[in-house]
Write a structure and sequence with these properties.
It is built from eleven helices and 15 strands. It has two domains: 2-63, Alpha-Beta Plaits, CATH 3.30.70.1140; 83-337, TIM Barrel (Alpha-Beta Barrel), CATH 3.20.20.70. α4 packs parallel to α5 (168-177). The chain has 345 residues and is an alpha/beta fold. The N and C termini lie far apart (49 Å). The structure holds phosphoenolpyruvate (PEP) and manganese (II) ion. Phosphoenolpyruvate is lined by residues 102, 128, 132, 184-186, 207, 237, 269, 272.
Length: 345
C-alpha cells in the first residue's frame, strides 16, 4: 500500500501517517518526490484497510500497489531516482561510466588504468578485491589489500570506487573502503547479503543474476530498499542462453522493461555481457542508445597478462573512444555524461 500525501501536506501530517503505520506494527518508508511525498508500507501480511489513513490530514490518496515489489516500483515514485555515489550522480539524466580492471592486481596496474579512466571522462573506478571465480584455483583477488589499493588510487585520481562484496565479512570491508557496494550476478538472490546491504549506508550496485528475470531482479532490489537503503543502481550484465558467440546474451530490452516498472537507475555491463573485447564498445554504444543510465566496463593496459577476464578487457584507448561515442549518442535520450567529482589539490 502506498499513501500519497497532498503537495501542501506538512511535516506533521507526514509524521502522523508514519506514526499510525508504526502503531500497526508495520514499517513506513517515506519516499520524497518532485511534487509530493509518498509513504510506502511494508511488513503487512494481508491487505491493509485504506480507511485507517484516508481521513488523516494531508492524505491525498491511498493506493494499493499492484506489483509484488513496492518500494522499487514506479507506482511508489513516478520520477526517476538519482543515486549519488560520493558526489557522482547516477540516473535522472546523468549517464555514469564505471571503468577499471576486473580485479585489482597491483598498485601500478590500478593506478595506470585509473589515471586513464579519469582523464577520458569516466566518473567511477571499479576493481574487484574479492572475486567470485568459477574455479577455486583461479586468482581470488587481493582481499583487504586490494581494497586499500583501490581506495588509495581512487583518492589520488579523484574517483569514487566500487568493489564487490561476496559475503558478510567482505561486505564490512567494502563498506569501510569503498563508495559503492557491488553485489554480483552470483549473489543477486543471496537474500541474507541483500538484507545486510539494506542496513549499509553506502549505495549498492546490484547486478542481474545470469538466470534471473526482470521481476526477480526487482524483487532482489526490494530487499535492499525494504531494509532502509534506497540507493540502489541496477545493472544488466547478460543472461545465459544457447548463444555461443558471446559469453552471455546482453538483454538490452531489460533496460526498457526495468525503466517502465521501476524508478531505479539501470546500467549495462557490456564486458560480462559479451565476454569479448571487440564487442564491448559497440554494445556500450547500444546501451547509451537504448537509454541506460550508464555502463560498467572492464579496462586493462595489458589484457594478455590480466589475472581475470582479460579476454573482455578493453584497452585504455578503447575506453577513450567509448566515452566519445557514447557522449555523442546521449542527447538522443535526453541524457548527458555525469559530472566527475572535483579532483583534490
Ligand atoms: C564483475 O563485475 O567483476 C563480475 C564478477 O560481474 P558479474 O557478477 O556480473 O559476473
Ligand atoms: Mn570480471
Amino acid at each position: 500500500m502506498l499513501i500519497v500525501m497532498a503537495a501542501d501536506a506538512s511535516r506533521e501530517d507526514v509524521a502522523q501517517v508514519t506514526e499510525r503505520i508504526v502503531a500497526l506494527g508495520l514499517t513506513a518508508h517515506p519516499i520524497p518526490g518532485a511534487q509530493r511525498v509518498a509513504i510506502g508500507i511494508t511488513g503487512n501480511q494481508g491487505a491493509v484497510d485504506p480507511a485507517l489513513f484516508e481521513n488523516l490530514p494531508g492524505v491525498l490518496e491511498v493506493i494499493p500497489v499492484s506489483h509484488p515489489y513496492k518500494l522499487v516500483s514506479r507506482e511508489a515514485k513516478p520520477e526517476a531516482s538519482v543515486v549519488h555515489v560520493s558526489g557522482v550522480p547516477v540516473g535522472g539524466g546523468n549517464f555514469a561510466v564505471i571503468a577499471g580492471p576486473c580485479a585489482v592486481e597491483t598498485y601500478e596496474q590500478t593506478r595506470t588504468i585509473a589515471g586513464h579512466a579519469r582523464q577520458c571522462g569516466a566518473q567511477i573506478l571499479r576493481g574487484g578485491a574479492f572475486k567470485p571465480r568459477t574455479s577455486p584455483y583461479a586468482f581470488q583477488g587481493l582481499g583487504k589489500n586490494g581494497l586499500e589499493i583501490l581506495r588509495d588510487v581512487g583518492r589520488e585520481v579523484g574517483m569514487p570506487v566500487v568493489s564487490e562484496a561476496l559475503d558478510e565479512r567482505s561486505l564490512e570491508l567494502v563498506v569501510e573502503y569503498c563508495d559503492m557496494i557491488q553485489i554480483g550476478a552470483r549473489n543477486m538472490q543471496n537474500y541474507a547479503l541483500l538484507r545486510l546491504c539494506g542496513q549499509a549506508r553506502k549505495p549498492v550496485l546490484l547486478k542481474r543474476g545470469m538466470a534471473a528475470t526482470v521481476d526477480e531482479l526487482l524483487m532482489a532490489a526490494e530487499y535492499v530498499l525494504a531494509g532502509g537503503n534506497y540507493d540502489v543502481v541496477l545493472c544488466e550484465r547478460g543472461i545465459r542462453t544457447f548463444a555461443d558467440h558471446t559469453r552471455n546474451t546482453l538483454d538490452l530490452a531489460a533496460v526498457v522493461a526495468v525503466q517502465r516498472l521501476s524508478h531505479l537507475p539501470i546500467l549495462v555491463d557490456p564486458s560480462h555481457g559479451t565476454g569479448k573485447r571487440h564487442k564491448v564498445v559497440p554494445l556500450a554504444r547500444a546501451a547509451a542508445a537504448v537509454g541506460a543510465d550508464g555502463v560498467m566496463v572492464e579496462v586493462h593496459s595489458d589484457p594478455a597478462r590480466a589475472l581475470s577476464d582479460g579476454a573482455q578487457a578493453i584497452l585504455p584507448e578503447e575506453l577513450s573512444q567509448l566515452l566519445q561515442q557514447v557522449a555523442a549518442l546521449l542527447p538522443l535520450t535526453g541524457r548527458h555524461l555525469a559530472p566527475q567529482v572535483r579532483a583534490k589539490g
